[in-house]
Design a protein that fits this description.
The protein has two domains: 83 residues, Golgi alpha-mannosidase II (Immunoglobulin-like); 190 residues, Vaccinia Virus protein VP39 (Rossmann fold). 26% of the residues lie in helices and 33% in strands. It contains seven helices and 17 strands. Helix 1 packs parallel to helix 2 and helix 5 runs parallel beside helix 6.
Length: 286
């Protein structure tokens, strides 16, 4: 398992009974987690001293309960700063487990003999974009949500990367990739974090089980002859690491060689000393 162990301002303190207790900078949050199927004594005082608690509804969705939590605050990871705020469906605007992938491709980018062109698809609030840009990459950031792209730009400004070579695009990722292929554009590294289900800015429907294979095959054609890496992240039940590995072996290796790894990603839990699984990633590099 690839574990994000380098955080200083974030930690999973404890888990149990379907929830996790997290520290986000100076604030404690309790959020549901479908992986947490075990019971725990909840001895840590943070369970009672939480600043925010997301309660899942039996009818679907849920709502936040706040105890002195500001509307917005920030945490840092290395030289990056992320603005956080609780919003619908339990999220805060950041997936801390992805730091283990940021570190991986940032090392590849920084060691390259030239600035690498990076494409980040389904790019959300820009964690991967900022990591790649900080490492010296020239990044194209694509997301269908204008609000998410604006949020990512705010994170770039907070991280001192307002003038970094980042192209910000609000677009349907599939249609953008198709246009890039017609234009003959290529990239040295591609990052994608496709949702299980989503809609593009013009109502385009995305269902990962139906769309992921043709989309990976399409994006593989956008890799330059001297491409260095390709990353797929998945939080979808059923898309196990071996599935992501199989996709990349089929779509990338025959044309470009290199090698593929895939594994679960996770976060250490302070109280138990164990690791909370948080999805899967597939990596191709050469």
């Amino acid at each position: 398992m690839w574990i994000a162990r380098q955080w200083k301002e974030y930690e999973v303190i404890d888990t149990g009974s379907g929830e996790k207790l997290e520290r986000w900078g100076d604030y404690l949050l309790i959020r549901p987690d479908p992986q947490v199927i075990w019971e725990s004594p909840r001895c840590h005082p943070g369970w009672q001293k939480r600043n925010g608690h997301y309660h899942r509804s039996a009818k679907g969705g849920g709502e936040w309960e706040f105890f002195g939590l500001p509307q917005e605050w920030s945490i840092r990871y290395g030289r990056l700063t992320f603005r956080l705020k609780p919003f619908s469906f339990k999220h805060t605007g950041l997936f801390p487990e992805q730091a283990v992938n940021w570190d991986w491709f940032s090392d590849l980018i920084s060691r390259a003999d030239r600035p690498l062109k990076i494409l980040n698809l389904f790019a959300y609030t820009g964690g991967a974009t900022l990591s790649a840009a900080r490492a010296g990459g020239h990044v194209t950031h694509v997301d269908a949500s204008k609000g998410m792209v604006n949020w990512a730009r705010e994170n770039a400004a907070a991280s001192g990367l307002s003038d970094a070579p980042i192209r910000w695009l609000v677009d349907d990722c599939v249609k953008f990739a198709e246009r890039e292929l017609r234009r003959g554009n290529t990239y040295d590294g591609i990052i994608m974090d496709p949702p299980s289900y989503g809609r593009g800015p013009k109502g385009e429907i995305w269902k990962i089980e139906e769309n992921i294979f043709p989309f990976v095959r399409l994006c593989a054609r956008l890799l330059s002859p001297d491409a260095r890496f390709f990353l797929i992240n998945s939080y979808t039940t059923g898309l196990q690491p071996a599935v992501l590995s199989y996709l990349m072996h089929l779509c990338i290796v025959p044309a470009l060689g290199g090698y593929v790894e895939a594994d679960e990603i996770g976060l250490p839990v302070t109280e138990s000393g164990l690791v909370l699984p948080c999805g899967a990633s597939g990596r191709w590099e050469r």
